[in-house]
Amino acid sequence: MNDRTKKRNSIVSRIIDGSVMIDSVKDFENLLKAFPDDPWLHRFFGDLLERDKSLYAAADAYGIAAELFIEADMIMQAIVSKILEWQILGLSYQEGRDFHSSLRNAGSKNTGVKHFFIKMTYPELIAFMSMLVIRYFPEGNMMQQFGDEEHNLYFVVSGTMEETIYHRLEKGGKVQKKSSQNLIENDFFGEIYPFEKEKMSQSTVETITRVEFAEISKLRLMKICGKYPNVKHLIHGLYQSRSESDEERFSYTVRKTVRHQLPTQVNIKIFSDEPDKAPLDLDGFTENISLGGARVVLDANDETARFGSLVGKQVHIQIYLAIAFVNLSILGTAVWSKEISLEGKKSAVLGIQFEEMTDKDRRLLQGYHYGYEVEQDRIWSLWGSLIGTDAGTSSLPAAV
Predict the structure, then answer these.
(1) 216 with 314, same domain?
(2) What is the largest CA-CA distance in the chain?
């Protein structure tokens, strides 16, 4: 990754997570001159222009963003940008047709969410888009609690959330933590299908950064499916795409954000944007880790507070796999950070997205996950068999 690309990614990441706000139209225009092909910058420029009541200019920026998002194979982001444009200018039949055609011809990565949208007919797509509500939540907001009734389907447009999934034991109604994963752009959540069943949330969802998402209620979706049966078929496929096989959970390209809570020691070198400045060398541990990245708690260190914003910085992470008795060295980027207090000092939790990994390291990390999953499954099977045999006389302690 060259310096220009790193600089652009750093700016975009900071605007997305809310740590940077650009309120000057002139400053944004200069930024667009430097990076004219970045869809996110056009989208954010549209937001700024709309706040300034320059509605036609905002609509133009949203339209450009939609086109660039399609070129980048970012379908959900293109749809939201187009919705924002049409909210200002209205929808013309020909433009709607052209947008639908562009979506169907976009890119080659046919992921679950993309497949869901590109397989809709034109009337189905317009009906669905007209029912989507664009919403925003700040960092640290609890969007969903365990046990809440599920009413909506959510598509993540930008930002990062943590979903903690729980399992309720059949005997005694006890609740035990099962696993965590990060939800990022193009993920979705909300268990509202099949429609005939009332479902209670089996997870909590909390925003780690500022988050934007598109929401549709269960009632609205049922009305669309009543008129367009194909949409109901696509909804079934959307949920099925998320849970088809265990192998998919470990795929680097399809489900790279599936994580498990593996307390693992790490050493991190965080590189400065200034070439002559030595990297910040810190120790810490992972709260969770996957083939796509890690959430790392840094040891308390006064240097952390003096280093400035960590988002967008290139990092080198060394992971000590205690079970495998090996160390992994991986390059990545800090995509979000959260300040915490640790041992009375300022520290940080970093969300790191892996960028470069050798095939050997990927196999070792995947094997580490797989071994952990097998052990966890065995424990769950034993637990289930014990409480199922005689729940009233079991001497096992309560789950925590």
Answers:
(1) no
(2) 72
Here the tokens at position 162 are 């943590």
Enter the pTM of the model: 0.63
> Which residues lie across from 206 on neighbouring strands?
142, 162
274 contact partners, CB below 8 Å, separation of at least 6: none
Q: Which residues in 149-175 are b (16+ Cβ under 10 Å) and which e?
A: ebebbbbbbbbbbbbbeeeebeeeeee
Name the residue type at position 381: S
Measured CA to CA, the distance from residue 49 to residue 44 in angstroms comes to 9
Q: Could you tell me the CATH number of the domain that includes residue 360?
A: 2.40.10.220
Q: Residue 398: inside a domain, yes or no?
A: no
Predicted confidence at residue 256, as pLDDT, reads 37
How close are the terminal C-alpha atoms of the chain, in Å?
43
Q: Identify whether 194 is preceded by a cis peptide bond (ω within 30 of 0).
A: yes
pLDDT of res. 265:
78
Residues 297 and 350 both lie in one domain: yes
Is 40 domain-assigned?
Answer: yes
Cα 272 to Cα 23, 74, 283, 298, 325: the distances in Å are 26, 30, 17, 17, 31
**356 backbone dihedrals φ, ψ, rounded to 5°:** -130, 130
pLDDT for res 324: 45
**What phi and psi, each to the nearest 5 degrees, are found at residue 136?**
-135, 145
Look up the domain containing 207 and give its range: 136-244
Same domain, 205 and 240: yes
Is residue 327 domain-resident? yes
Measure the CA–CA gap between 140 and 142, rounded to whole angstroms. 7
Which residues of the chain register pLDDT less than 50?
Answer: 245-262, 323-324, 370-400
Residue 330 counted as domain residue: yes
Domains: count for the chain = 3
Q: Give the pLDDT confidence score for residue 245 in this predicted structure.
A: 34
| Same domain (yes/no): 271, 234 | no
